[in-house]
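Q: Predict the bound structure with beta-D-glucopyranose.
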Amino acid sequence: MTKLITIAFCLVLQAAAAAPVPHGCKGVPPGWKLVWSDEFNYTGLPDATKWDYDVGGDGWGNNESEYYTRADKKNAWVKDGFLYITARKEVKEGRQYTSARLVTKGKGDWLYGRIEVRAKLPEGRGMWPAIWLLPTEDKYGGWPASGEVDIMENVGFMPDSVFGSIHTQKFNHIIHTQTTKGLYVKDPYTNFHVYSVEWSRQAISFFVDGQQYLTFYNSGKGFEEWPFDERFHLLLNIAVGGGWGGKKGIDDAIFPRSMVVDYVRVYQREDVEGKVDSLLQKMTLEEKVGQLNQYNDDLNPTGPVTYAGDNKAKEVSAGRVGSMLNVIGAKNTRRLQEEAMKSRLKIPLLFGQDVIHGYRVTFPIPLAEAASWDMAAIRQSARVAATEAAASGIHWTFAPMVDIARDPRWGRVMEGAGEDPYLGALIARARVQGFQGNGPGSLDAVMACAKHFAAYGAAIGGRDYNSVDMSLRTLWEIYLPPFKAALDAGAATFMNSFNDLNGVPATGNGYLQRDILKGKWHFSGFVVSDWGSIGEMIPHGYVADSKQAAEVAIKAGSDMDMESRCYISNLVSLVKEGKVAESLVDEAVKRILTKKFELGLFDDPFRYSDEKREAAVQNTSASRAVSRQMACKSVVLLKNEGHLLPLSKNIKTIALLGPLMKAKKEMQGFWSFDWGPEDQLISPYEGIADKLGNNTRLLYAKGCGIEDTSRAGVAEAVAAAAQADVTILAVGERQDMSGEAKSRANIHLPGIQEELVKAVQATGKPVIVMVMGGRPLIFNWTADHVPAILFTWWLGSEAGHAMADVLFGDYNPAGKLPISFPREEGQLPVYYNYLSTGRPGKDDSDRFYRTGYIDLVKSPRFAFGYGLSYTDFVYSDLQLSRTEMTPSDSLVVTFTLTNKGSYAGEEVAQLYIRDLVAQPLRPVKELKDFSKVRLEPGESRRLSFTIDKNKLSFYNEELEWIVQSGQFELMVGAASNAIRLHGTFVLK
Ligand code: BGC
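A: Predicted complex:
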């Protein structure tokens, strides 16, 4: 009966064309196809074409007290539309109970998919119902190394707890399990619930009734952590007793009991190739070119608008536009999508947006997040941004920016992950995983776009849009790894870049886009140009006019034209004149249409633009809490003499000074959106006031403006400091001083801010300076004289609260700089992984005929990897598992980390290596691994890093990836310039 009602309800729902199909209904979710199912609409034994039995009593290492039988014992049968798997009290081969374990092995074996089981669980202690995925072939040596996905495990003595977990060589359910704790499963025994997983190359996510409660991401570290890129089958089990299920004893009174299964459905991603091909057949050349054309919504330009005054809605309904950017809000995306539905073929628009560090809730700028060295947190930040943006109808973010940057004069350092390719690659992967969630078609995910391909971060002189001139070895070794990591994590799209690379604009660069990206790397997504970059090949002097620009760009592999209009104006005639093969246009169109199909837009073009979801998921307190936590993790403690920080919450009077102390908008950073008063941005002042309540008197004076040259306000600030027990100064950059087109030749603290610091410090009162900005800044006087300094970047919506958490010790800072801070601009570029010269100098004082400057030391002010904590960490007892290795060996480095201070805290322990003699030269240090660990006061932990061939390989002059035998130095420490432990080994 229940089943009939459900089916009727589902039919009604499906009749309403635009309604999304809820879990539990047979409707196939957009972008998926049903590949296997059992609806149990028959009576008798389970369908033998679909199910088999595991028979026997050996147990699974859990000592179940039962014997698994075939169906003749009626332990598994189908009746009234349901499958019952029952445990019965009867003795068999020395076991007290019998049950059936159904498997699809050999009858249903899948690689990736979405598996849904609607079931009611058996009640009772000592019961152990489970739904698992197991490898069909034990390719990596059997359980657990070959993997297991526990879609659902429910243990009788833990009612209302449903477990989802994975088992691998590295992880097991004890350390990698999260329970639903009755949050989603209130009544697993009395009601049916849908237990499901989505499993892809990138991630495995667990759901109950469509609610996602757990996701494991592919670490990229291979089968030891990810044995899941193989065929798996499904197993339905109920056990009795056992080490886990029966730990608390078996309650005979409640047997027999059954797990009742309503259906099992397996979906796999639709094969969209055929659909794309048949649509392409119907398209005119003009319509094809329309798909390659992307327009900006003129209300919110993020670049120079190329052509104003035309009616874009009309262009859309004429089928001349494939994508729009900067259309804000569900209402507006829906409005334009309606125009697209008026076009002849009704091909939906793609909406792209720069969701760089949050959408509705602003997160710390990407460079700040990089300082957390915390991949789970970074991923989570991107997830929140994606969830919010997707509800507004955005399908695609132009992020992550994965450009390595060694020159903080370049304003876009704020948007990346800093200077290191290893850290940059991990962060690129985490961000792609966060944005894309469960992949195309998920309503809480957006497509990622790895940008700017390539080498944009190496603009000469740090001047935005400038030329890049570098060896191909540096390109491959330093600038490309984060792009490759983004691609491996499944990034759906790439964006090319404004710069030329060794004389060829990236947009017209076939080596980058065709040879590397689409060739060697087999990238199957599409490449969007940067804003107007196709047309900008004209002022570059690379092409004569927009027609030639279009020809060069499409041939070089640029698929979509953002705002330059070169494609829409010229591609049709270029094809007709025979200058561009239509197959080139077709290839680009196919790549774009594939994404539209994958997103489910042909099933329902409006499925993302949802004002109700927008209201429900945006700016929630939970998301703000995630932002606050991320902000805390991003703060870097640069100095803390005499343990001035953390401050007590009982200080009587605090002076809160500086041009950024009451700033709100500045907290948001460059790539943020203006939502008006609802922004609820928390200034440092508000954050501190919220923390302290009425016991503390707060004195406020601005002192000066951000770029002021007037000293008029300084006296007031000094007077406030003189009356206070402690002074906190908030200084730094304006929100629009770091970002696109915001290169600065002078990156000292702007205006007279450092004079203000000096004057306040002269009061003799304890001073804490918080420096805010989007890039490394120079503040030498402050660094030399002020006892406590926090670098707080631009921390987003919850900035003030996070700063207060750190200042008053509710959060112990653990951030480490992802980029070197120079002493003067004249040192730039300054970075830690440089090559040694023939006259290196032992240290900064060794300068006689050494590389360096006669008027300044060459080391940075604050080095890559640097950052303090309120507690003290000590490194000791380095051990190497071997001192000689061959390329097929691996070497394990272990050491002890001890928290010797009085606060619990986190440390990012870093592993660097140096190849002592190599041809070509190797850097003096390269980050190869790190581990962020939390230790209680007095706690010690043994940590380890594994070094294998891959960590020792590099590109030779022929750009081959090789290893060279010889001696290596390994260094473990708290920063690139705070190496605590050394070792050496030889690669044979
Ligand atoms: C930037 C891109 C951005 C695009 C769209 C360009 O100016 O370089 O990073 O995604 O504008 O806003």
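A: The two ends are 72 Å apart (CA to CA).
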